[in-house]
Amino acid sequence: MEFVTNFLTADIRTATPLLLAALGLVFSERAGIVNIGTEGIMLIGALLGSVGAHVFAAPFMGALFAVLGGALAGYVFAFFTVTLRGNQIVVGTAFNIFALGLTTTLNRLLLAGVKSIPGYRTLAVPGLSRLPALGPILFRWSLPVYLAFLLAPLCWFALYKTNTGLKIRGVGEHPKASDTLGINVFRVRYGVLIFAGMMAGLAGSFVSMGQASTFIENMVAGKGFMAVAVCVFGNYSPLGVMLAALLFGATDALKYRLLPVVGGGYSQFLNMLPYVITVLALCVFAKRSNKPAASGVAYRKE
């Protein structure tokens, strides 16, 4: 029972940043924007969260810094891909390279010698956290974990049951027709990219403040790309993304559970496991996914 409890808690912990980032990606992907720059935005969020938490000695300020930094990064990404109509893959790749260099430099300037930072505090739900087995698995988490899993159904409702969600999906499927109906395609795409940036920034802050309590250069280590795979694997649906994030988190959790047992030279193969699952998911489900018709296509207003 202890092994199951530890495994499930590790699954939720590792799935949380993937879920937060992927929920933002669902909206940007549904609007026709492919944002592989999520890796870089998460890295920026991880650094800004650490700086904010260290300077103000408050995790809340770290989260605020990360979200605002993610929003700004999303706006910059939107400027290059929506206004300037740059190739989204090229811009995303450049963004990731830039973010790695920027965060490495700022880390050495602002956090030199800092060994640990204030992390997200555990908020146990009164009463429910004392339940046998289920208590530590479901009701003893920090705020970002609760927020991630509460946002999944809320995002589903917003995307499929509101007029705003209909506009977002319309822009992703047929931007010209949406423009003809009076929907501002540029405004919608800017909005979803800023929202996706905020979510990626918060996800990055959880990596540095919820999993590590410190900032390490390039600590996101591919989680942004995994979030893109989670979005595809979840078929561009918030609820599907939640299940996909738990599955991807389970592979990461399994790696940590098996490392002490296997050890030796085989440990490197276990480190590969989450990324192998990511590649396989992209290869198998990319063609079967419900990708918007205008995905990755810059819109030109005639």
In short:
By secondary structure, the chain is mainly α. It has twelve helices and two strands. The protein has one domain: ABC transporter involved in vitamin B12 uptake, BtuC, CATH 1.10.3470.
Please describe what this structure looks like:
The protein is 73% helix and 2% strand. By secondary structure, the chain is an all-alpha fold. The protein has one domain: ABC transporter involved in vitamin B12 uptake, BtuC (Orthogonal Bundle), CATH 1.10.3470. The protein is globular. The model has no long low-confidence stretch (mean pLDDT 90).
Topology:
Blueprint: H1 2-30, H2 38-56, H3 59-83, H4 88-110, E1 122-124, H5 134-138, E2 140-142, H6 143-160, H7 163-173, H8 175-180, H9 185-212, H10 223-233, H11 238-262, H12 267-285
Antiparallel strand pairs: 1-2
Helix pairs in contact: 1-6, 1-7, 1-9, 1-10, 1-11, 2-3, 2-4, 2-9, 2-10, 3-9, 6-7, 6-11, 10-11, 10-12, 11-12
List key phrases describing it.
302 residues, mainly alpha, ABC transporter involved in vitamin B12 uptake, BtuC, two-stranded antiparallel ribbon, 12 helices
